[in-house]
């Protein structure tokens, strides 16, 4: 699944390798395996959620890490742009910072909670 630059992997960036160690832990006690089934890759290649975004009736929040090398911003941004009630929030971070940087995770989470509260309040009134 995750490899070093130049290796055959779904994600092969220095950032991914560094964060893999933080997320999965090291040593024999980790339960996560750095593997992916080839059939899963076929589904990923065919999955284009922006094609269906125009059909969404519910509010949609899309959070983007501006330095994301694993999921390019232009493809993710299309979700928010095509959804009738889409909202885009950009954060100065990498793909993995959302998971491994406590300060960034709290910032993103606060934005998600505010979005949810805003849309729940509209529904109540």
Description of the structure:
By secondary structure, this protein is mainly α. It folds into 2 domains: 1-47, no CATH class; 48-125, no CATH class. The chain is 46% helix and 10% strand. The chain is built from 5 helices and 2 strands. Strands 1-2 form a two-stranded parallel sheet. Strand 1, helix 3 (73-82) and strand 2 (86-91) form a beta-alpha-beta unit. The longest helix is centred in the last third of the chain and has 23 residues, at 102-124. It is globular and about 50 Å long. The relative contact order is 0.14. The model has no long low-confidence stretch (mean pLDDT 83).
What's the total number of strands?
2
The overall average pLDDT, rounded, is 83
What oligomerization state is this entry in?
single chain
Strand order of the largest sheet: 1-2
For the record, give the distance between the C-alpha atoms at the N and C termini, rounded to a whole number: 46 Å
Which spans have pLDDT < 50 for at least 5 consecutive residues? none
Give the overall shape, derived from the CA principal axes: globular
The secondary-structure element order is HHEHEHH
Radius of gyration based on Cα positions: 17 Å
**Which class best fits the helix and strand makeup?**
mainly alpha
Strand content: 5-15%
Short description:
With 125 residues, the chain is mainly α. It is built from five helices and two strands, in the order H-H-E-H-E-H-H.
What structural keywords apply?
125 residues, two-stranded parallel ribbon, mainly alpha
Secondary-structure topology with pairs:
Blueprint: H1 14-24, H2 38-46, E1 60-65, H3 73-82, E2 86-91, H4 97-100, H5 102-124
Parallel strand pairs: 1-2
């Amino acid at each position: 699944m995750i490899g070093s630059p130049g290796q055959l992997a779904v994600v092969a960036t220095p950032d991914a390798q560094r964060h893999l160690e933080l997320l999965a832990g090291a040593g024999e006690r980790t339960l996560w395996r750095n593997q992916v089934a080839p059939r899963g890759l076929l589904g990923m290649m065919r999955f284009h959620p922006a094609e269906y975004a125009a059909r969404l009736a519910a509010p949609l929040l899309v959070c983007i890490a501006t330095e994301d090398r694993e999921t390019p911003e232009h493809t993710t941004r299309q979700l928010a742009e095509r959804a009738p009630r889409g909202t885009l929030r950009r954060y100065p971070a990498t793909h993995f910072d959302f998971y491994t940087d406590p300060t960034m995770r709290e910032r993103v989470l606060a934005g998600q909670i505010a979005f949810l509260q805003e849309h729940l309040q509209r529904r109540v009134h």
